[in-house]
Amino acid sequence: MYEMKPEYYIGIDMIDEEHKQLFQYADEAYELLHNDMIPDKFDAIHDVLMNLRNYTVKHFSDEEEYMESIHYKKLFTQKIQHQEFINKLDEFMENHNEEVVDQNKQIEDILEYLTSWLINHILYVDGQITKKSINDDI
Fold it and tell me: Residue 98 gets which letter from DSSP?
């Protein structure tokens, strides 16, 4: 259900590949939400959140390193947005540790935030990195 659509590619292979992985984590959460064979999803939600958080930290580090290498002027803004995303994941993890009664609602909340953030950030923020790279080549 969640996949990296052509319009989400920014043209920087390393970043695009890592974005694909983030969509795969979103897809795992989606599959978990719709899996009626797992009555208690506590451990699975924990795993999705941990994997997502760990991978996101790596991705943001890689992305910021790339931006530094091209002297991207909006790097500081990106770092702030990246930290806000990590903070939100931490908040989801804290709420999860309080053993949320409605696990499906928790997954829905995670997916809603993740979907909105990924799409908007990739299209409107990360897409600017490519424009910077192209403009420098001209």
Answer: T
